[in-house]
Each structure stands twice: as structure tokens, then as C-alpha cells.
Amino acid sequence: MGLGGPQAWLLGLPTAVVYGSLTLFTTVLHNVFLLYYVDTFVSVYKISKAAFWVGETVFLLWNSLNDPLFGWLSDHQFLSSRPRTGHSVHITLLLPADYPNPAHHCPSPEEMVSHFSLALSPGRLAGSRGGSTPWGVVLPNRRLRARRSGTGLSSRAVVLARVRALGWHGPLLALSFLVFWVPWAPAGLQFLLCLCLYDSFLTLVDLHHHALLADLALSAHDRTHLNFYCSLFSAAGSLSVFASYAFWNKEDFSSFRAFCVTLAVGSALGFVGATRLLRQRVEAAGREPGCPELAADSGLCGEEVGNITLGQYLWQLAHHRNFLWFVLMDLVQVFHCHFNSNFFPLFLEHLLSDHISLSTGSFLLGISYVAPHLNNLYFLPLCRRWGVYTVVRGLFLLKLGLSLLLLLAGPDRPRLLCLFIASNRVFTEGTCKLLTLVVTDLVDEDLVLNRRKQAASALLFGMVALVTKPGQTLAPLLGTWLLCFYTGHDLFQQPPRTPVVSAQPRPEPPAPPPAQAPTLREGCFYLLVLVPIVCAVLQLFAWSKFKLHGRRLRMVKAQRQNLSQVQTLGIKTV
Q: Alpha carbon of 92 to those of 31, 127, 142, 144, 297: distances in Å?
């Protein structure tokens, strides 16, 4: 009786809450990982510089390739699975006399659907005397049979497969998170293996979780509702950053290690419980006729369609114009997000250190992890009302306007600088969260354009990541090069007289000449304002070419909805 109350409460949770809670169990681990993994290996495990850069280089390559690799392994079956034979409805179509013999010419699906629809029109069925209609001639052995058949995998089976994958990969992600904080191999080898192992399971969890956003709901309203709870739980998970400060101690690592074990155990149990609840919800929905929560797809592919190779899939993406314009814009967005993350402490140090305390700077750094998710709680209702395209375009215009305002105001406005540095990071990170909804719309368009049997959600998310991940590497490289080019200050070059780590206290280094201090500060200021201006201009141009919004988006949604309701006919030549 005591367990009945909590169990009934859990079973009564909305599907959106259960789906969003999966973000909590990822965020509590990933934010701690981002903050401490470098410091742990450099300061605690004493990894060598060569081993560190080798590990980071291999990690960058693997981080770029594993998204499309895992996406292809997960979803290529949806592109090529053959339909199962089901109940058949045989419809004989009378072909025109000049229609090519199917034995020598295999008509395309578009031709067959066109002829099929034309033959069923009232005028064609009525016909006319004297053979005025070309469909009035019956040719031997030249018929098209339309067979009603199910697809190789139902959408409910696809969703269940993704939920089961999350149930396995989530606990493995928590386990791979733990291996960072216990030395079990030489530092260089452990660094390389831990990074690749952790990133592999993180990619698998992210791909399946994002793919569920496209598979669980079709309408923009339902998807923004799911994303709302993702942002809410992400904000809650970011609180682990503040809690970690109480346990972080390089000299006594045991307390921080125990804190990480607690996070990992809680995350693993959360993944198991949430995926079990979600699986029960999906199975129950499948038993209810006409349940609107599951997107059930079936494509216009017949049994004669061969396997789609990776090259053919890439060719299809290369001709998907909205996909190309989106990844161009998203590449700039990923670059800007990581530029803000990498240079946030530098901007605080050189632009605001004389005006804010150290504790205030630490608070701004911590709140920058939480605020983007809370900010999305406001923007998602706007997306529901005005559309994601309009909200994202407004954020680009806001970024451009604030950057131009600060450029005109100059670097001697500390309050405006503080507001801009914080809002620039918050709005940029928030835009990244909203773009997940745009990728789900691209999944819908890809399904309709290529007449797929199932929506290849994880694969498309993986291909987006393949194109945009280089922005993560370009951000620190281009930022440091621009700063060095403008000011002559190399962030990686340490003067021999001021070592970073010293066993004995040294006297304070002499202050730099007065001519150098404003130069570095001025360089940071122009880097702070000019990068957002250039990014905003490029993004507004690419976004203006993106046409999957308004009327076209409604048409794509309607076509996918029709595919899910009609259980499309698989047409084959006999």
C-alpha cells in the first residue's frame, strides 16, 4: 500500500515529463565533465603535454565521425527495410496503348502514383465510347497491382527500439563518466580511452533522445511542448555545477570522487526508470486505437526498391536545399556558441576584472550554464505562437542589434559590457536549443521528399552534427589567431620568467608597459563585438534562404500526417 502511491504517481506522469526527464540525467553528468575533466588530468593525474594533445586530437576526429556513424547504424534499416506482406487489395489499372512494357521499362513510383490517381478519377472511370480515352485499351500482362501492405517496421516499433537503446546506453554513459575520476591506467592512455568511450555513449544517448522528439510528435505544438520540459530539466541538471564547487579539491580528491559516484548512480537509475515508464506508455498507446501521440509513418516505397547505400543517401542530402542552408547556418551557430564558452573567462578578466569581484565573475560563469535553459521556457511558447523560424530570425536580429550598440558605445561602459557578455552567451546557447525543433522539421521533409518507409531521425541528426562539429574546433583556433593577429598577444606562449606552476613563491612580475595593456583590452573588446556581428550577418543570409516555414512547412506536415493515417499503398509492377 505504501508503494502503491508513488508507483501510481509515476505511472500518471505525462509523456512529455518522462521524455524531458531524460535530459536531466544527461545534464547532471555532462556539465561536471566539461568543467573538470581537463583540470583533473592536468593537475591531479599530471598528464604530459604531448599525451594531452594526442588525446584531444584523436577525440576531435572521433567526436566528428561518431554522430553520422551511429546514426547510419541506427537508421539505415529504415531506408531499406522491405515491407511485410499483409492483406492485399488488388486493383487492376488499364494502361494506355503507348505505355511502355513493364518488362522493358520499370516505371518510377511517381509515374505509377500519377497513373494510379488518374485512373481512379471520375472522368477516367467513366471513360468514353469510341476509345477516346487512352485508358480504354486492355493490354495482356500489362497491369499494375496496388497492394496494401505494412512497412518493414512500424513507428511504434521504431520508438520502442529507441527507448530500449536509451535504457542501455544511459547507464553505460554513467559508467563511462565514472572512469574519469579513478586512475586505472597511465594518464595519457586513460585520457584517450575515457574521452572516446564517454563521447560514444553520450552521442548514442543524444541521437536517440533527439530522434524521439521527431518520432513521438508530428505537430509543432507537441514538439515545443516536449522541448519545454527538456529545457526545464536541463536547467535543473545544471545545478550540479554549483554543487560541485563544494566538493572540488585537487589535494583531497576523495570527496569529489564520492560526489561523482552519487551523480552517476542517480543518473543510471533515472535512465532505467524513465525508459521503463516511457516504454510502458508507448506500448499502452499502441493498444489504443487512434492514439494521436505516436507518429506512425509509412513511405511510398514498394518491395522492388533496393537497398539505399550511404552514397545514395548523401546524394539525396546534397539535393536537399533546406538541409544545406540549415547546416550552413548551424555551423556558424555552433562556432559562435563555443566561441562564447571558450572566451567567456577571458572577456571577464580583461574587460570587467576592474569592475566586478572574483565571486561575481564565478557567479556569472555558473549562471551562464543555467540561464539558457530558463530562457527557453519563455521562447518556446513564442515558437508555439509565431513559429520557430520567426523566433530564431528575431534572435539573430537581436544579436546583431546589441553588438552594433556595444560597438558604438565602446569598451568603457562596464554595465553595458556585463549585460552584453551575459546576454550574448545566454541567447546564443538558447538558439542552439531551439534549432533541435528545426531539425525535426527537416526529418519530416526528408521523409516526404524521399518517400521513406520511416523517418530516419537519428541519421539526420547525425549528419547535421557531422557538418557542424568542425565549428567546435574552429572557435578556439580562429579566436586565438584573431587576437594574436590584432594585438600580438599569444595566449599559448608563456614568458620564461613567469611559469604557470612554481614550487616556491616568486615575486610579482613587473607590470606591462602602459601601451600594451589597452591594446590587449581593446583586442578583446573588438573580438567580443565583431564576431557576433559577422556571425549574425552570415546567419541572416543563410536563414533567408531556408524555406521550410510557413505554408511549405504546413504542407510537409500535412503530407506526413496523411502518410501516417492512410498507410500508403505499396505499388509494384506485375
A: 61, 15, 10, 6, 26
Residue indicated by cell numbers 498507446: 285
Q: Tell me the C-alpha distance between 297 and 290, whole Å.
A: 14
The DSSP string of 421-473 is HHHHHHHHHHHHHHHHHHHHHHHHHHHHHHT-SS--HHHHHHHHHHHHTHHHH
Q: Which of 150, 165, 7 is nearest to 84 (CA)?
A: 150
CB 180 within 8 A of CB 271: no
Q: Which of 22, 165, 76 is nearest to 460 (CA)?
A: 76
φ, ψ of residue 335 in degrees (nearest 5): -60, -45
- If one compares 122 and 530, the residue with the highest pLDDT of the two is 530
CA–CA dist 155, 158 (Å, integer) = 5
DSSP state of 99: S
Are residues 441 and 460 in contact, defined by beta-carbon separation less than 8 angstroms?
Answer: no
Structural domains in the chain, sorted by start: 12-78+154-285 (1.20.1250.20), 310-491+517-573 (1.20.1250.20)
Measured CA to CA in angstroms, residue 158 lies from 128, 452, 471, 489, 528 at distances of 48, 14, 31, 53, 45
- Residue 300's pLDDT band, with cuts at 50, 70 and 90, is very low
Q: Give pLDDT, residue 47.
A: 83
For residue 18 the three cell numbers come to 518522462
Question: What count of other Cβ atoms lies within 10 Å of the Cβ of residue 284?
Answer: 11
Average pLDDT over residues 444-465: 85
| pLDDT tens per residue, range 223-253 | 888 888 888 898 888 888 778 877 888 787 8
DSSP string, 376-427: HHHHHHHHHHH-HHHHHHHHHHHHHHHHHHHHHH-TT-HHHHHHHHHHHHHH
- Which is more confident, 424 or 533? 533
Residue in this structure with the C-alpha cell 516505397, named with its chain if needed = 301
What is the three-state SS of 152-211?
CCCHHHHHHHHHHHHHHHHHHHHHHHHCCCCCCCCHHHHHHHHHHHHHHHHHHHHHHHHH
Residue 137, all three cell numbers: 485499351
User: Is the entire prediction scored with pTM above 0.85?
Assistant: no
